[in-house]
Specification:
single chain, alpha/beta, six-stranded parallel β-sheet, 10 helices, 35% helix
């Protein structure tokens, strides 16, 4: 067996999510973590101490200029920096893995796609849930026609009390929004992937802020968020219409008065339905309504699969299963929901 080719990776942003990227990349034979950049010195020190990152920089443009042999970059900065960081890395001749959502807007996302095309480099959006065992099961079951024509998808990414008390998740100027763009994006992309990625054509949505911008003494696992800088929504709901007639609804919250947190989607077809979280299928057999459970869907780590996919695409030429085009479709849905909420009416997705 031939030895795996060397693959040199750098990081723009070396905080918590970057450390997760580093953890999995370090496990892949041939991958070298050659450089990282961050404005926080402690993040850089931890990246060297915990993961053996070879060189660190405070300025990402300096890193891109200095690291001639670096082949790819993982962009792990706040959402508002994704586009400029990604475009700079592509223009420096590097492949890019960018954290979700790919940008603050579809307009920015298109500029990122254009930059990747000009550079002849891969742009991968870091969606991990499409690589999970249950997503592969639902996609296989749905796209092979077992459920008949798909009519409707219900997505939920709901926290009872889960406002992030770290980072800049409460700042709209840096993140673009709250739970819809932060956690709703995950379940939307998984569902969209599992039903075959139809083209979104219109959106309707609403957002509410009622607790995050106020102090609270309610006991929760994530207390003491920065309510003074909180400018995002607490809860958002949206509906997307696709070109094939399928409808998708999404409910997302940092704060909701519900029994428990929910992270799931369900697909409704003419011949049956499927639950993503449980890998259950609901259908009619003979004269009975049956609830069927998959005997085995797999047990792999979807984060590991995501990072292996990144290396396989950029180093080995494998097909890109989480492309910038797919990221842009998700971004258009997010844009549509927020635009509709602001306008108070359904909006067209171009």
């Amino acid at each position: 067996m031939s030895e795996a080719k060397s693959f040199k990776v750098g990081f723009i942003g070396a905080g918590a999510i970057a450390r997760t990227h580093m953890k999995y990349l370090k496990e892949i034979t041939g991958v070298e973590l050659v450089a990282a950049t961050d404005v926080i010195e402690d993040n850089l020190a931890r990246s060297q101490k915990e993961f053996g990152v070879q060189r660190v920089y405070k300025d990402y443009t300096e890193m891109l200029k200095a690291e001639k042999e670096m082949e790819a970059v993982s962009v792990c900065t706040p959402n508002g920096l994704h586009a400029p960081n990604t475009i700079a890395a592509l223009e420096a001749g590097k492949h890019v893995l960018v954290e979700k959502p790919m940008a603050l807007s579809a307009k920015e996302g298109q500029k990122m796609l254009d930059a990747a095309k000009r550079a002849g480099k891969q742009l991968i959006v870091a969606f991990q849930h499409r690589f999970s065992p249950q997503s592969q099961f639902v996609r296989d079951y749905t796209t092979t026609g077992e459920l008949g024509n798909i009519m409707y998808v219900r997505c939920q990414a709901l926290r009872r009390r889960g406002i992030p008390n770290w980072g800049v998740f409460g700042r709209k100027d840096l993140q673009g929004g709250g739970p819809m763009i932060d956690i709703g994006v995950h379940i939307i992309e998984a569902a969209h992937y599992c039903i075959g990625s139809p083209r979104p054509v219109s959106a309707f949505g609403q957002t509410w802020t009622y607790l995050g911008n106020k102090p609270s003494n309610v006991r929760s696992a994530w207390p003491n968020w920065d309510y003074k800088t909180y400018t995002v929504e607490d809860m958002a709901v949206g509906m997307i219409r696709f070109d094939n007639g399928v409808m998708l609804t999404i409910e997302a919250s940092f704060v909701a008065h519900i029994e428990k947190d929910i992270f799931n989607f369900q697909v409704f077809g003419e011949k049956g339905g499927v639950n993503w979280e449980t890998s259950q299928v609901f259908h009619d057999v003979g004269n009975y309504m049956l609830n069927s459970s998959a005997g085995y869907v797999g047990t792999w780590d979807h984060w590991q699969k995501k990072m292996q996919h990144f290396v396989a695409v950029c180093r080995d030429g494998a097909p890109n299963e989480s492309s910038g085009e797919q990221g842009l479709a998700v971004q258009k849905m997010l844009d549509g929901i927020y635009s509709s909420a602001a306008a108070g009416k359904e909006v067209t997705i171009e």
